[in-house]
């Protein structure tokens, strides 16, 4: 994704279940919980459709990270998308989030860390934000499989504040890398 050192470019949270999240100056990550004041924080699933199916499922979607490079890509297709618009909590630049193996630990800022659990599975709500955008964030890999470009989901390992401009450090898991799957 270029030669730029990985960095947080924006942070967002929303206490309600809305598609987009407003940008804030900082978010506070809480170990095992998520982002303080965000509707998706909790030890069990908080996403409405998942709660309806089984509210006791563990929450593997505490923090949503999205690469700002996606905004550049969809802009080429005529879409105007900015940080927070797709519901992400942390927008990064300079890191191939989608290429990380499951279990990767991302160190955000001075003390916070998250473990990547899987891919966000973009849904029809994206077209409600901007008609046709869903097709732009779903692609086809060379082997014909669906390529999900809507960022990654994670759980909080270590709490702390995260702000725009904070460095992102990648810690790959040991052993054979497992490709990310939708969570």
From TrEMBL:
Residues 21-171 form the MOSC domain. InterPro entries: MoCF_Sase_C, MOSC_domain, Pyrv_Knase-like_insert_dom_sf. It comes from the Bacteria. One of its GO terms (molecular function) is catalytic activity. Transmembrane segments: none annotated. This is Molybdenum cofactor biosysynthesis protein. It comes from Curtobacterium luteum.
């Amino acid at each position: 994704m270029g030669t730029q050192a990985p960095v947080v470019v924006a942070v967002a949270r929303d206490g309600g279940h809305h598609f987009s999240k407003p940008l804030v100056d900082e978010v506070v990550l809480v170990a095992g919980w998520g982002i303080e004041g965000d509707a998706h924080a909790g030890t069990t699933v908080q996403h409405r459709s998942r709660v309806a199916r089984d509210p006791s499922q563990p929450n593997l979607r505490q923090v949503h990270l999205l690469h700002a490079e996606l905004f550049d890509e969809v802009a080429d297709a005529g879409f105007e998308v900015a940080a927070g618009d797709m519901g992400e909590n942390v927008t990064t630049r300079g890191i191939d989030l989608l290429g990380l193996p499951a279990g990767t630990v991302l160190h955000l800022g001075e003390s916070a860390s998250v473990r990547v659990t899987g891919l966000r599975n973009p849904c029809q709500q994206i077209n409600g934000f901007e008609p046709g955008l869903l097709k732009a964030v779903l692609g086809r890999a060379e082997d014909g499989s669906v390529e999900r470009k809507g960022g990654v989901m994670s759980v909080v390992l270590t709490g702390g504040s995260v702000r725009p401009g904070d460095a992102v450090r990648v810690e790959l898991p040991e052993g054979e890398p497992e490709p990310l799957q939708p969570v």
